[in-house]
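Table S5 (text form). Sequence records supplied for joint modeling of the two-component complex.
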Amino acid sequence: MVSLTSARTVRAAAPSRPPLKTGRPGAGWAIPGLVFFGVFALLPMAGVVYLSLTSWDGITAPQFIGWHNWSRFLGDHQIVQSTIVTAILLLGNIAVQAPISILLGVWAAGKQRNRAVLTAIFFLPLLLSTAATSVMWRQLLDPNFGLPSKMSWLFFGDQNMLGTQAGSIVCLIAVTSWQFVPFHSLLYQGAARNVPETLYQAAALDGAGRARQFFSITLPLLRNTIVTSTTFMVVGGLTAFDVVLLLTNGGPGTDTSTLPFTMYQTAFVTYDYGYAAAVATFLLLLATGASLLLVRLTGYTKMTSTQEGL
Amino acid sequence: MNNVSRRQALAALAGGAAIMATTAACGFKSANATASSADGDVSYWTQVDPTNTVQQAAISAFNKTSKGQVTLSTIASAGYLGKVQTAMGSSAMPGLFFNWGGGSLSPYIKAGKLVELDPSLKSHFLASPLQAGIVDGKFVGVPCRGTQPVFLYYNKALFAQAGVKPPTTYSDLTSLVTVFKKRGITPFTIAGSGTSSWTELMWVEYLVDRVGGPGVFSSIAGGDWSTWKDASVLQAAQMIAELISSGAFGSNFGSVNYGAGGTSTLLADGRAAMQLMGSWDYATLAQISPSFVKNDLGYVPFPSVEGGKGDAGNVSGNPTNYISMTTAAAGTTAADFLKTVYRDDYVLGLVKDGEVPVTTNTKSLLSQSTDPAYSSFLYDLVAGAPAFTQSWDQALGSTLATPMLTEIQKLFNGQDSPQQFVSNVLAIQG
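The corresponding structure-token record, covering 740 residues in total, follows.
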């Protein structure tokens, strides 16, 4: 297997002592990865696209029906509503989670002992399963036995948190943030620890205060991490489903029925796999488009380091 | 490309071919999912519930004398229906399975997965619960469990304090709303959270039945979706809208869940006066507070509606549960096993578990129940009902029932006006 890298160079150099090679590895190395990707990603994707052209209840064989699902898809007001709800949840989650996790991450990057202890406690929600926490929160949000009954000053009105659209969306964002802020803080903590101490010392000499240091040094140097974290939030937000299923079940009515939830319900509750595949294909395009756009907009592809010139 | 990477590519191709071959093999296997011999073994799927021990005892007794063995698989209730649906198209199809009858079986019959049963079995069961086991004109479900009608539970202590009696007419019901609201007690507890719209459905079922008679829904279930236009549906929706605006259900039911830690606890705690619920709530209440069930639990049929076409004796709910046989079952073994579900020892086991089976021999065994008064109430309610309307979600099957439940939730939340409710439900099958 020596020659896997590039047989030609090896053979040419064979007579004498093999030279130290620094060339790119040969295409052969990519095959296991490509096969894996092909079998477990491309093949199922192609399957989904094919299923979106069929009518299938999961019991009998799929029937090819051409563009029927797609013409229905284009005229479906439920899809429009789901897309809007998904977008609201996505933007809401970014707006809430990004500032909190940047601040927390930068704070947790400090070496003080109490911060290490508090950080460890704070990371706990990340370790719990989303299913378990969603069920827990549904009980906690019960107006008669949960938090609202004990803390009526916090839950205004008649504590009907999950019975209104605004209340449900607030709850979904709060629960998702509660669970995933620790993850994003972890990313920022790592990145903030990489900021060279000398920059802060220099800034302090120039008379920059804490706030100025944060905005002029920390934040610009976290740029790549902000892109990574936001990409995670966007892709995660587009596929978030378990919280919706267990906390609101898409309700009240269809007010929090996100795209992934609509897909699930179409496939596994009403057994219309063909139409669900059309929704899935749309989601696939949306998620791919969103992450490509994000990478383009932020110039992430240039792979420039935030620490050039140091 | 050089030699080595070509060899790699070939290996990859061979690997791919192997995977394809395996997949294809699986495909063939599923196509031939039929029993090898008529007296072979049978797998029986059921959902996890307190009667599993009674079922297992019946199976063990059967297996002692039978050549083909029956094996019981218990599946968690939350994923039960989905698992059955998935298995039905595959090689893992069970031979016998527990179900709710009605429209939920219709797709399986159309796909030719179910076996028609011996009509002589019918003579061992009460007539009305048998109906949901006969789907698309074919007898495919044998009753195997207690009956689960829906009726009004009430808190006797609260009624005594207020000096009132449980409702027998709809105007009684609305005046009780005023009485209990004045006392700061929720008149009717109801669960309106995301997954609980089936509790709201119960009100629609009863009001449509009392106003328009059982024929309205039987016509819808029979395939005439335009029957939703019937005036009784709109009137029932308007009655519900009035109940909600009068505060009959409290104001925050949209966040309330069903069961312990939800509606049932509210009733047992005396925070709510009544709940419209199925017979299974008795067991839930007994778990929450045995003393409440012993001293203060009352139950009455749903009241009549003045001027309505429906008989006040009509019942709605789950007539019972059923066992159905698929083409994967070893025919003789499965058919023999189905003759055990009306035998005295099986029925008695269910009765002792608090169930009220729908076999003809049930009545004589009811005195051995843990609460004979309650069991007799259930039996008389069902045996004397001129019509037993199956829960609409079970009767329609989930393809139609899921969007219908969403609209009912919207009606209760005030997102749909009664008129919008009718037109939105009509549009489900447009």
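Note: Residues 98 and 323 of chain B are 5 Å apart (CA to CA).
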